[in-house]
């Protein structure tokens, strides 16, 4: 299994801290269903005050249970949705989110590509692989001759390890396995030479036996093409192997983040601790982790709350074994735990006004 060298990357990041894509305090509220014409409008509070940054050549894992807002973040970053509030910056430049012109969005999406969970629905069954890959090549790259197109298409297929490439190029999606289709989806994203790849649970619908191959492909592309990779997963144990940084999300709020080793071996937020205790193969060999509360099954503490009317304050207070009266009143500030590790939890807050 390929394992990221976190020390090297963090040293490198200190030398080169320039983020390629940043989100600052973004919120996304979807309109909810109204009981009748005269009832008050309702909103799904899907993403609440989230800030994150992606760096060239670095993978960031975004983990959390289903319904925590991970896909909404990916769609916001890909500009499929407009944030209700907040700012996006690409290469340090604020993006004018009001510019929804097709040409502006197309140019942005050239740099920021999204890979979906379901490789079956992301390809059109009536078109060949050639058609799927040639489309973005024609839109974004200047191709002068058919021979040039052929050469580029074959190179893309080889890039995602679909060989012999000549045998895949004229196939239809239904002639490929799930893993091969996801490789085509990755090749299509690469066709436009992106700088950011947002992979939304890219292997969760694939056979277990091929998941590792696809993840290792994404990692090698990240390293070789210096891609900034957002790796979305509900499996926190895999984050440690595939991402230098891990961010933990609960019910629309980021609650913990930092170098993956620290977050996974010494989780501080009660939600991260419960997620790890519920993971099938958690990395809990570090003695520091043993000082944390005894693992309690997350499922036994109920489900993620409805985001139509989310709990006040720290949204985890309805399931948290350590909830205090203050937790219902407001969301805790971020506590810096050292070496880039942080959490939002009153248990670690040293500010007296937070207690
Ligand atoms: N287009 C939408 N309209 C209304 N609610 C949505 C929409 N997309 C997502 N949601 C809601 O936002 C919340 C977060 O969803 P999502 O981002 O898909 O979470 P995750 O990817 O972590 O499972 C959920 O409560 C979901 O029902
Ligand atoms: S802030 Fe309170 S409710 Fe939230 S995780 Fe920490 S102790 Fe639990
Ligand atoms: Mg999702």
TrEMBL record:
One GO process term, biological-process aspect: peptide transport
SMART domains: AAA
InterPro entries from the UniProt entry: AAA+_ATPase, ABC_transp_ATP-bind, ABC_transporter-like_ATP-bd, ABC_transporter-like_CS, Oligopep_ABC_C, P-loop_NTPase
GO MF term set: ATP binding; ATP hydrolysis activity
Coiled coil stretches, renumbered: none
Pfam families registered for this protein in UniProt: ABC_tran, oligo_HPY
Keywords: ATP-binding, Nucleotide-binding, Transport
ABC transporter domain segment(s): 21-276
PANTHER family in alphabetical order: ABC TRANSPORTER, ATP-BINDING PROTEIN, TRANSPORT ATP-BINDING PROTEIN
Family, similarity comment: Belongs to the ABC transporter superfamily.
Protein name (database record): Dipeptide/oligopeptide/nickel ABC transporter ATP-binding protein
